[in-house]
Amino acid sequence: MIFDIVMPKMGESLTEGTVLEWKKKVGESIDKDETLLEIATDKVDAEIPSPVSGTLVEIIGEVNQTYDIDTVIARVETSDSVEIPAKVASGSQSPEGTLHATSRQSPQSAPQRPGTQAPVTFDDNRVYSPLVRSIAAQEGITPAELQQIPGSGFRGRVSKKDVLFYLETRGSGGKKPSPISGLEETGLADRVSPEDVEIIDMDSMRKSIAKHMRKSVDTSAHVYSVSEADMTKIMTFISENNEQFKTKHGHSLTVTHFITKAVRDALLNFPMINASLDGTRIIRHKHLNIGIAVAVGDGLVVPPVRNAEKKSLKEISDDISNIVSKARVKKLTLDDLEGATFAITNFGVFGNLAGYPIINQPNVAILGVGVIKKRPVVVETKAGDEIVIRQMCVFTLGFDHRLVDGAMGGQFIEEIMKNLESVDPQKELAGAL
């Protein structure tokens, strides 16, 4: 029996995915739940397991090509008896992050799945997604007009944004849709000599980061406050207790755990920092979902510690260890990535003294953490001022001046510094060592 493998739905708001790599070749056998391919969306890269055991007989989805969800991207011949869920059989979406399959007697004689439309091609040989065709039909865009809309997607693919921009500029002298913000073309690639440069296409994650960062710069009025904290007490505690903590709990105790807890405590006193803007409306979030920036390959993801307002330092450390581990092996789901209300990014892991981070939309603030270095500092004692060696760290708070004024931003970062310097690690981790 032949089963169609289709592009899975990775989240409610996502309508397409990009094939990054096939883990199996045509003719190779595959076990159920063994990784079949890796895909990328605007939010996450993910390894996708096969829903059946069998032999991969056809690969349709090309690497670096983008496909709508439910589009057939491969076929597997199997003897498994697989029950197709009723929702899938009726043409609705598959469970998030999983592949679903439809049974066929042969690749050539497959009936079209009920409730779906076959891709429509025109004289230009372009394939338009069901969403694009639906918008075109509702707005009265003719096939001839549709063929004239420049596409900003992979290989000139027409996206929803392209169609909507066309509708906005319809009748304005034939103005063509501009490229998606953050990916503007300068024409440089066409003007340089191929012998002098190497031209590399952005992967899906880099495109997503480029658009997201450009949008943030265009959206938020970025302002920065810089402060520093004495981290000696925390670093000494970690050095003396990390091995015991790791043996007992299976992961290391890091300075990020203490910083996240200090941020959590400060956010409880500054709820407007834990907010978002929707036009002229302020959205104050009831939960503190603190995003932790994690470098993955050539990109970056910001999975949040959810409901941090309820968690102890030990629980926060467990959550951070879990999301970092999942990020580094590409096991994060869309649910793991969405919902951050504040973010922390660590420049210090690369030895940088400080940095000026871009706000992670739709947040209104982000904390940058520099390297922790031993430096001579002046401290006050009963005997007078003394110069001592302390482990110091520079922190940078980026905030959106549309909502957060300088006074609030300055007070907030100073509260974080106070929390870090006054913490009692032994008390915070009572019972965890």
Short précis:
With 433 residues, this protein is an alpha+beta fold. It has twelve helices and 21 strands. The strands form six sheets. It has a six-stranded mixed β-sheet.
Judging from the principal axes of the Cα atoms, what is the shape? globular
Within the CATH hierarchy, at the fold level, what is the topology of the largest domain?
Chloramphenicol Acetyltransferase
Number of DSSP-assigned strands? 21
**Which stretches are low in confidence, meaning pLDDT under 50 for 5 or more residues running?**
84-98, 105-124, 172-181
Count of alpha and pi helical runs: 12
Classified by CATH, the class of the largest domain is Alpha Beta
Distance between the termini: 56 Å
Rounded radius of gyration (Å)? 26 Å
- By secondary-structure content and strand pairing, the structural class works out as alpha+beta
Q: For the largest beta sheet, what order do the strands appear in spatially? A: 12-21-20-19-15-18
Average pLDDT number = 83
**What kind of oligomer do you see?**
single chain
CATH superfamily of the largest domain: Chloramphenicol acetyltransferase-like domain
